[in-house]
């Protein structure tokens, strides 16, 4: 698919085309629905097609197969050029600029459909060929890059590469291998300054490793600084700033055709040539791209254009990039806002979130609320905010924390309330300690008897309350007789 939404495919030697521009909006299709593809016959080609690819502006299309390539006009399938080629790659700029791999030892550059330069790669055997900002020649366990001007050597990277995807700006590239993909940043200025020297190892600093992601890429394309791809598990994902976000889970194995930014739609095709579409908001991608580039002026200008239902996704992305303050301001998800407030040590904000949620969310899990109150209480205790720690412990029913607080402060009324609360909650160990600290020995004995801890009650009475021994022994004998 080219940048305007024109799709071209082959049925044996018959070539067909269709336009996907405006189809989704016109038919009101939902995500995952099949897109009608009324194909138009362009004609037949002379070779059996194994690869079809539009050039940069979509005016021409190349068909490769049987060790040959033929370049046609994309509208009428008129022959423009042809030749021998095991592989073919278009230039990202020139209309008639391309490179072909004629053999494992020869690569030929064409400019304006005329041969301009032939190269015998010295760095590796040419087993594959890729286009983009640089010409990529794949070897058995490496890939070598050359410029488009004169096929001058730029840099060799030792990696087993299956495919190469360049961003439109030409400053980022994905090298996809069998089990992962590498995101590299291309330093165009360093290459321009040193490529003419033709050093044996190429240009030092031509590439910088940005991220290595443990995902196998089936097919992909760049949208700004976001890499949109289909992985081996059948998920449509996109990478941005070191994070991988899932757009959709695909029902079958699909190939990514492309993305139309004006329509916010990505198109995929399966092996039966059925096309499916999914919505992906270009404004969100632009915002994420601006944040990754640290262009905060542009990001702030884009932010008002984002739909309200995307704010939680934006907040999660900002959190992953380390901008937790901004994420807290944008998020509408109570769980996420609470976690961010805790991470930022904003105890009052976290408390407000919890109070508001308790008052409005009737379906909230009591266990989840208790866990969050306990988490906030522990944080307040570490921060020395004992009043908030006590309040959180009461709401979380964290009796151990209350015992610690009241004991440390010498709060006798608090210990008395805790003893009653612990007894009601059947937390007899806490109740016993609280009663013991209060000096209520008789109540301690009574608690042990009530909980059938009669041997302990007898020994405790023997040590601390001899007057209770007859009653405890009588209860013990009665229990043994049962």
UniProtKB/TrEMBL annotation:
Q: Which residues form the COPA/B second beta-propeller domain?
A: 12-270
Which Gene3D superfamilies does the annotation name?
1.25.40.470
Swiss-Prot/TrEMBL keywords = Cytoplasm, Cytoplasmic vesicle, ER-Golgi transport, Golgi apparatus, Membrane, Protein transport, Repeat, Transport, WD repeat
Q: GO cellular component annotations, sorted alphabetically? A: COPI-coated vesicle membrane; Golgi membrane; membrane coat
What residue stretches are annotated with the COPA/B TPR domain? 287-477
- What highest taxon heads this organism's lineage? Eukaryota
A single GO BP term for this record reads: vesicle-mediated transport
Under Gene Ontology molecular function, one entry of this record is: structural molecule activity
Which Pfam families does the record cross-reference, listed alphabetically?
B-prop_COPA_B_2nd, TPR_COPA_B
Bilayer topology annotation: Peripheral membrane protein
Q: Which InterPro entries match?
A: Beta-prop_COPA/B_2nd, TPR_COPA_B, WD40_repeat_dom_sf
Name its cellular compartments: Cytoplasmic vesicle, COPI-coated vesicle membrane; Golgi apparatus membrane
Similarity comment: family membership: Belongs to the WD repeat COPB2 family.
Listed name of the protein: Coatomer subunit beta
């Amino acid at each position: 698919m080219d940048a305007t939404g024109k799709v071209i495919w082959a049925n044996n030697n018959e070539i067909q085309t269709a336009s996907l521009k405006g189809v989704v909006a016109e038919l009101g299709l939902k995500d995952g629905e099949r897109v009608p593809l009324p194909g138009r016959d362009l004609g037949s080609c002379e070779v059996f097609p194994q690869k079809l690819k539009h050039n940069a502006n979509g005016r021409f299309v190349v068909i490769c197969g049987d060790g040959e390539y033929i370049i046609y006009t994309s509208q009428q399938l008129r022959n423009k050029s042809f030749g021998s080629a095991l592989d073919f790659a278009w230039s990202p700029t020139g209309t008639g600029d391309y490179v072909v791999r004629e053999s494992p030892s020869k690569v030929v550059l064409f400019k304006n459909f005329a041969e301009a330069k032939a190269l015998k790669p010295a760095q590796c055997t040419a087993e594959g060929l890729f286009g983009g900002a640089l010409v990529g020649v794949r070897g058995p366990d490496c890939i070598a890059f050359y410029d488009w001007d004169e096929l001058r050597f730029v840099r060799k990277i030792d990696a087993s590469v299956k495919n190469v995807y360049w961003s439109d700006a030409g400053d980022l590239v994905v090298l996809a291998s069998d089990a992962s993909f590498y995101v590299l940043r291309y330093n165009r200025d360093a290459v321009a300054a040193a490529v003419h020297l033709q050093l044996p190892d190429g240009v030092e600093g031509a590439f910088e490793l940005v991220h290595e992601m443990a995902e196998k890429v089936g097919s992909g394309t760049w949208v700004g600084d976001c890499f949109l791809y289909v992985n081996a598990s059948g998920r449509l994902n996109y990478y941005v700033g070191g994070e991988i976000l899932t757009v959709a889970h695909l029902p079958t194995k699909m190939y990514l055709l492309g993305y139309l930014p004006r329509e916010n739609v990505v198109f995929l095709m399966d092996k039966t040539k059925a096309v499916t579409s999914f919505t992906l908001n270009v404004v969100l991608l632009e915002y994420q791209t601006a944040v990754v580039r640290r262009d905060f002026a542009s990001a702030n200008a884009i932010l008002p254009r984002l739909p309200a239902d995307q704010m939680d996704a934006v907040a999660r992305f900002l959190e992953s990039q380390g901008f937790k303050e901004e994420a807290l301001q944008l998020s509408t998800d109570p769980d996420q806002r609470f976690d961010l407030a805790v991470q930022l040590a904003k105890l009052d904000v976290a408390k407000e979130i919890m109070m508001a949620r308790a008052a409005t969310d009737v379906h909230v899990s009591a266990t989840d609320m208790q866990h969050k109150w306990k988490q906030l209480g522990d944080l307040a205790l570490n921060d020395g905010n004992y009043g908030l720690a006590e309040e959180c412990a009461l709401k979380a029913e964290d009796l151990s924390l209350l015992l610690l607080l009241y004991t440390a402060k010498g709060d006798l009324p608090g210990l008395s309330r805790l003893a009653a609360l612990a007894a009601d909650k059947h937390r007899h160990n806490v109740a016993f300690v609280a009663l013991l600290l209060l000096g209520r020995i008789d109540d301690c004995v009574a608690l042990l008897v009530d909980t059938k801890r009669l041997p302990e009650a007898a020994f405790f009475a023997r040590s601390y309350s001899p007057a209770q021994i007859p009653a405890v022994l009588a209860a013990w004998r009665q229990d043994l007789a049962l």
